[in-house]
Design goal:
two-stranded antiparallel ribbon, alpha+beta, single chain, six-stranded antiparallel sheet, Transferase(Phosphotransferase), domain 1, 3 domains, 12 helices, globular, 328 residues, Phosphorylase Kinase, domain 1, 14% strand
């Protein structure tokens, strides 16, 4: 996996403030527009940018994300799919992903999970209204904001009516949160996202996917019943319907919304206290960054450069030499 020797200072019109994360597809940076608006900028890795099919897939992601609008999705503000390294900018959400929140502090209480589920249903309603199927709804693609969740990453979404790049029988997605039809490589529609939503809710309540993980997860998703221990009452029944093997047996989103809100106690507060703490810390960090001058201090630059060199696999001695040379 290639890593840049140093992070870019600017992508398109956006000044790069810091790196938010990285993955197999590329890097995500915190950027700032000329007017000071924070954005998350996803940049494709060079080896993938050199592949024509991947560039086309990335262009499809941008197109899918642009047609979706809703309170619980992260809005696309800019993109350049023709750049040497294609990039996509969305509004920055200063909150952890559901995966991060559960890993750090454990499962969420049921009242908050009902609020979370209602927000995700509303997000899927907006996505499906735009004739898009997300196909990769999972805890890592759900950001927890102060006013509710945000669904992100339309990398393998499918726009209804648009020719697909995925060949018949080829499986794409994240197996523990994929639907049985997706596991089989069959055509998927909105009910597939409902199945994935059921899996996300199980994860939020228990800290694990409903069919586990590992090599056998594909078989369990396709043929075995989900593990719902620890989930009781109407919530268990609702999730079980979402995880039905046959797409036609899963609830419509409007009925799912009604079921989630029917049992929601009035005292259900969003965000949960631990998530609120994480959001506050990220927001404070943003405030500090805004107060900094537009030019980054030399020590900060050198520290960032050192981290990037270490990421690239260079030795401590080589890093020290580079940092000293840079500060000379």
């Amino acid at each position: 996996m290639r890593t840049p020797v140093s992070d870019p200072m600017r992508i398109g019109p956006y000044r790069i403030v810091g790196r938010l994360g990285s993955g197999g597809m590329g890097w995500v940076y915190l950027g700032r527009s000329p007017s000071g608006r924070e954005v998350a900028v996803k940049v494709v890795r060079p080896e993938l940018a050199a592949e024509g099919e991947f560039r086309e897939r990335f262009a499809r992601e941008v197109a899918a994300a642009r047609v979706v609008s809703g309170a619980y999705t992260a809005a696309v503000v800019d993109a350049d799919t023709e750049a040497e390294l294609p990039w996509l900018a969305t509004l920055y959400v200063p909150g952890p992903s559901l995966a991060e929140a559960v890993r750090a502090d454990g499962p969420l209480p049921e009242p908050q999970v009902r609020r979370l589920g209602a927000g995700l249903v509303e997000a899927l309603q907006a996505i499906h209204a735009a004739r898009v199927v997300h196909r990769d709804l999972k805890p890592a693609n759900v950001l927890l904001a102060s006013d509710g969740p945000r669904v992100i990453d339309f990398g393998i979404s499918r726009v209804d009516g648009a020719p697909g790049l995925t060949q018949v029988g080829v499986v794409v997605g994240t197996p523990p949160f994929m639907s049985p039809e997706q596991i089989r490589g069959a055509t998927v529609g909105p009910p597939s996202d409902v199945f994935s939503l059921g899996g996300v809710l199980v994860y939020a309540l228990t800290g694990r996917p409903p069919h586990g993980s590992g090599e056998a997860v594909r078989y369990r998703v396709a043929f075995e019943e989900p593990e719902l221990d620890g989930i009781t009452g109407p919530m268990r029944e609702l999730i079980a319907r979402c995880l039905a093997k046959r797409p036609e047996d899963r609830p419509r989103l409007d009925r799912l919304m009604a079921g989630l809100l029917e049992q929601e106690p009035r005292e259900a507060v969003w965000p949960p206290p631990t998530v609120a703490h994480s959001i506050a810390a990220r927001t404070q960090d943003l405030v500090k960054r805004r107060k900094q001058s537009t030019s980054v201090s030399v020590p900060s630059c050198l520290l960032s450069h050192a981290r990037a060199l270490l990421d690239a696999g260079l030795t401590d001695a080589m890093v020290t030499e580079a940092v000293v040379r840079g500060g000379a």
